[in-house]
Amino acid sequence: MTSGLGATGLLTPLFIGDVLGGLDSIGVPVTQLLQMADSIAFIILAAIGLTVIFGMMGVINLAHGEFIMMGAYITTLSVNVVGLPLPVAMILGALGTAAFGAIIERTIVRRLYGRLLDSMIVTFGLGLILTQGTRIIFGNSLQSIGTPFGNVPGYTYSAYRVLLLFAAIAVLGGAYLVFTRTEFGIQARATIQDAETARTMGVDTDRMYTVTFAIGSGLAGLTGALYAPSATIVPGMGQSFLVESFVTVVTGGSTVLLGTTLAGGVLGTIDAIFSNLYGNFIGQIALLITAIIVIRLLPDGLTGLAHTIRDKLGERQ
Amino acid sequence: MSDNHVSRRSVLATGAAGVGAALAGCSGGGGGGDSGSDTIKIGVLEDRSGNFSLVGTPKWRASKLAIEEINDNGGIMGQQIELFDPDPQSDNQRYQQLTERLIQQEDVDALWAGYSSATREAIRPIIDREDQLYFYTTQYEGGVADKNVFCMGSTARQQLGSVVPYMIENFGTDIYTIAADYNFGQLSADWVKVIAQENGASVNNEEFIPLSNQNFGSTISNIQEADPDFVMAILVGNNHSSFWNQRTSAGLDIPMGTSTVMAQSYQHKRLEAPALADVYGGFNYMEEIPTDRNEDYVSRYYDRFPDAGYANQESVNNYFSMYMYKDAVEAAGTTDQQAVREELEGGMEVTGDQSPEGDISLQGPVHHMTHNMRVMKCDADHNITVEDERMIPEQFLSETVGIDLSGEDSELERQFTPTEYYDAAGE
């Protein structure tokens, strides 16, 4: 494995093995927990770019899967053709997709704000062009890069997939900080909430839209980059992220980053438990049924529930 | 075989293709027959774009190679072959539309079409309505007994009948099956059970995996927990290819048998070693077969298509069947489809350079091939070796069901399944 990430993985494998073995011996279902980490990470990372583009900006981006695919392609090609170390290739994957997103916003998406159905059609077409264009340029499949880190010590489970949970948390935390604690984040949210007022306050709203869309695209690209070592690199690969991503954003509700975290946690846990007990098919069904129940009972999504609880607590005080 | 799930793409494409099909239907025209023209018209519908282009493109290339070779050597009975090969784009509606067009407007003398079983079943009603001579060249679940259809690929029973007994003999009797969750995968899993029972083994665990699934964490830990002697992995499509990387990084080192992986979409060339280490497949062809005849074929294939990624199992079926058709037409002395069909039903031998896998023969009464089946092993460096080799005929239709399309069953147009004939299947 040529990956530069290898070193970190080798730090304390015996220690991790001992800890997990210890937990197992006192009855903690370690295998299920590993599966849960894997599922939660997948759901959060599948949704994260869409959280910004659909959740915040209100653009139904049906090319979301293709943005993920683009991140994976840039990463894989950077490793295989240019010979870059994996972490650098991953950063390039995210940045490259962000740059592509910025161009798409400037040329196409810009004209579609507030036109929900039109944005669906256009991004759907964009997705087709990206998939088939990739196929024409790079062929039907790329040589894949192997998965770093090997297995979780003592368990038949890929360590890399489990570590993605930490990547997911870091990405969520980073996005939260950017959108709540930076001047850019506040201006961006102001622009999306009320562009006219923001403009009168001196915010360059055009730039805000472009940068926000680019960030959403970049996050999708990062997801592709992170899954590149563990997925099959083909032009249609983005499709497999699409269901989870939309379900997560819708289930999450209006406060998008919190929503993605909550939805990722709930849906990932359900998926993991049912996959583990009854297989992947039942896991998928359980996930979708949970989403239906959540949307039926909580029309404002999980964050709607969180807000209600917060308001009730506030009243009591 | 392969996936027939509905994506948002196919939903939208359906509408468009439906309009096209309706328009195509207006043009009328009679079906099939000897057109009396000075070329022989052949239709080849193989996917060069869309989901199946990875496996469809080699099939198209091999058909083209065979046709060019035949034309360079004087054609069929002195007539050149005229090829009609629009790209069906992995879309079943488009397949239906193009099948209508090739039969009614182009009046093709023979048709090759389709990768997946879903595609074959989508166009078979049109084939039967028009009585069109049709060659289906993918490995598939088996059981199609249709007067107009000649199945050139090996069936699940032939492929699994080659690899499952080998695995039982070498690794043990406790089997864990993971299979793609659709028609082909489920019937293949049934065959694993039937063949296991015939060889004194048993399938003790079985999981069907949705074609959209690409996360195998729980599957891998469940396999490890059950700790079988070997796994039969009948995985299909690009998403399922992720299984091999994840299996390797999870450290699951139980030997695996397959009928689908490697030979069709060459995962051993696309995934980094050792993802496919200790995988054993039962196939009628892989490009690594170390015979002079095959090496000669492979070099012809790459000379013609230098950019090709692999000469897959299906592509060779396209190749030899074109020559088999040529022989049948020349023996019949006409391209009249009924006459050619009767010639084929008398049985054919495909030998020499025309059949890269080895000398094989057509079982006329059931329209299937006796194939030269091999157990091929992939090692940790992704080198392929032949571990076992024998001729395996189609047995299900010919022996179990007892079909004779050249005689009493000459009007049959249906597919038989193992659940109708075996208790072990479908349990």
Automatic annotation (TrEMBL), chain A:
<keyword id="KW-0813">Transport</keyword>
<dbReference type="GO" id="GO:0006865">
    <property type="term" value="P:amino acid transport"/>
</dbReference>
<feature type="transmembrane region" description="Helical">
    <location>
        <begin position="277"/>
        <end position="298"/>
    </location>
</feature>
<feature type="transmembrane region" description="Helical">
    <location>
        <begin position="248"/>
        <end position="270"/>
    </location>
</feature>
<dbReference type="InterPro" id="IPR001851">
    <property type="entry name" value="ABC_transp_permease"/>
</dbReference>
<feature type="transmembrane region" description="Helical">
    <location>
        <begin position="84"/>
        <end position="104"/>
    </location>
</feature>
<keyword id="KW-0029">Amino-acid transport</keyword>
<keyword id="KW-0812">Transmembrane</keyword>
<keyword id="KW-1133">Transmembrane helix</keyword>
<dbReference type="GO" id="GO:0022857">
    <property type="term" value="F:transmembrane transporter activity"/>
</dbReference>
<keyword id="KW-0472">Membrane</keyword>
<keyword id="KW-1003">Cell membrane</keyword>
<protein>
    <submittedName>
        <fullName>Urea ABC transporter, permease protein UrtB</fullName>
    </submittedName>
</protein>
<dbReference type="InterPro" id="IPR019924">
    <property type="entry name" value="ABC_UrtB_arc"/>
</dbReference>
<feature type="transmembrane region" description="Helical">
    <location>
        <begin position="158"/>
        <end position="179"/>
    </location>
</feature>
<feature type="transmembrane region" description="Helical">
    <location>
        <begin position="116"/>
        <end position="138"/>
    </location>
</feature>
<dbReference type="Pfam" id="PF02653">
    <property type="entry name" value="BPD_transp_2"/>
</dbReference>
<dbReference type="GO" id="GO:0005886">
    <property type="term" value="C:plasma membrane"/>
</dbReference>
<comment type="similarity">
    <text>Belongs to the binding-protein-dependent transport system permease family. LivHM subfamily.</text>
</comment>
<dbReference type="InterPro" id="IPR052157">
    <property type="entry name" value="BCAA_transport_permease"/>
</dbReference>
<feature type="transmembrane region" description="Helical">
    <location>
        <begin position="40"/>
        <end position="64"/>
    </location>
</feature>
<feature type="transmembrane region" description="Helical">
    <location>
        <begin position="208"/>
        <end position="228"/>
    </location>
</feature>
From TrEMBL, chain B:
<feature type="domain" description="Leucine-binding protein">
    <location>
        <begin position="39"/>
        <end position="382"/>
    </location>
</feature>
<dbReference type="InterPro" id="IPR006311">
    <property type="entry name" value="TAT_signal"/>
</dbReference>
<dbReference type="InterPro" id="IPR019968">
    <property type="entry name" value="Urea_ABC_transptr_substrate-bd"/>
</dbReference>
<dbReference type="InterPro" id="IPR028081">
    <property type="entry name" value="Leu-bd"/>
</dbReference>
<dbReference type="Pfam" id="PF13458">
    <property type="entry name" value="Peripla_BP_6"/>
</dbReference>
<keyword id="KW-0732">Signal</keyword>
<dbReference type="InterPro" id="IPR028082">
    <property type="entry name" value="Peripla_BP_I"/>
</dbReference>
<protein>
    <submittedName>
        <fullName>Urea ABC transporter substrate-binding protein</fullName>
    </submittedName>
</protein>
